[in-house]
Amino acid sequence: MNDESRAAPALLLAKLGPRVSLKEEAGGVLRAQFDGETLLLGKFSAAALRRASELTTGRPLSGVGENDLPEEKELRGLVQRLALHGLVEYRLSRGAGGQDIVAVEPQIRDYRPSLQKLGATSRFVLSRFAYLRRRGEDLVLESPLAGATLRLCDARAASAIARLATPRSLAELRDEPDFPGEEFLALLVDCKFAFASDPAKGLRAGEGDEDLALWEFHDLVFHVRSTNGRHANPTGGLYANAHLPQPPAVRPAWPGPVIELAKIADASDSAIAATLRSRHSERVFDDAHPITLAEIARFLDGAARIISRQKLSEDEGEEMEVAARPYPSGGASYELELYLAVDKCDGLERGFYHYDADRHALVAIAVTQRQLEAIIDDGQFAMGAPRPPQIMITMAARFGRVSWKYSGFAYSLVLKDVGVVMQTLYLMATEMELGACAIGVGDIDLFSRMTGLPFHVEGAVGQMAIGRAAAQGAP
Q1: Which residues are bridge partners to 352 per DSSP?
Q2: In terms of Cα–Cα distance, which of 404, 405, 399 is closest to 456?
Q3: CA distance 434 to 472
Q4: Rounded mean pLDDT of the chain?
Q5: Most-buried pick from 7, 275, 307, 381 (CB within 10 A)?
Q6: Where are the beta strands (DSSP E) in 27-82?
Q7: What percent of the chain clears pLDDT 70, i.e. is strictly above it?
């Protein structure tokens, strides 16, 4: 990179995402078209419509200014609207017609990059959660903490990232011949790919809070990438590998001697065996006769209430407090909490509640109607159901309860516990003749917004819909 290009400050430009186009209609109405879908963006002035074409290649992000032209304010609103629907990305570039350093791909809907002034005396270091990987023919920088993915457009950016493996001051980085510039470092800090280190704390403790220090790299990546809310990758039953042969539903039998257990088993079923065999998922609920508060009380009492509290001494000399529930938990951690998004329940107001398993009580949490409808609608969509579930239960993990003790497989234990709790809720619903359906994936960012809890402190890890099952054959 020559001295002239290094001296030129890099600019953040807003640009339409891939496969997105704008269409002007009569009356100054603008629509966005993408992947066969259409989004109405509103009515704009003729001046704003003329300049909207700048979004095809990228237009500089502008802040709010007293002397802004009216069309500037309109275009700023247009970019914000597009960003809310994930239809815009950003370029860090040497001017509108210059070379891109990186392309910024938002992973959270309302993410908007910002380049803040960096401290001259601070020393910056790469986050231990940041990683470079090949994606197709691109090199991308990702992190479960980041609100965006950076697509590297200049190989020298990768060199600068590598140098941040050890803390460096801005002055030291400027002395490097291929340093992309202060704006690039500011973007890394804004996206949480890098942070200002504190020598007194050390690198692990100095990044984020004490709860973040409990996480290992692979666990946090798995948590974010196996749920919705903090990445923009396609998820769900997409049949991405349908071009390959489907593995058989029943494994081919092993050769060898066979012992026929059916000939020696007791012919009578136990009560638990009968319940297990009658358990099935219900996706349609009877809204004319919704689940009642009394049934919710019985359901939670049998499946999730704390039944004992004690302190246990570990072999290593550590003492751990245990609050046991009716199901097993890895290391007796009992890290899972239940939150209820209630749409219809006889005797309970529509709203969002935490189940206090110690007091056997529901505690109302203030959320917006939009948030409540979003979590319920997500459940309906995930089930492919004709109507919303009456109650959506979110299982949230207090991750530190597990990672305080276990290393290497802490998040794996959390997911095993989720499976145990799901089966417990299923069996309790079956015994009570209620309908239940496990949900494959939830939105961890939505849950974080509803509770105000950071996603890495207490985050959604499982969901289940429950309610009064509709009669067989009912619509």
Answers
A1: 341, 365
A2: 399
A3: 13
A4: 92
A5: 275
A6: 29-34, 37-43, 59-60
A7: 94
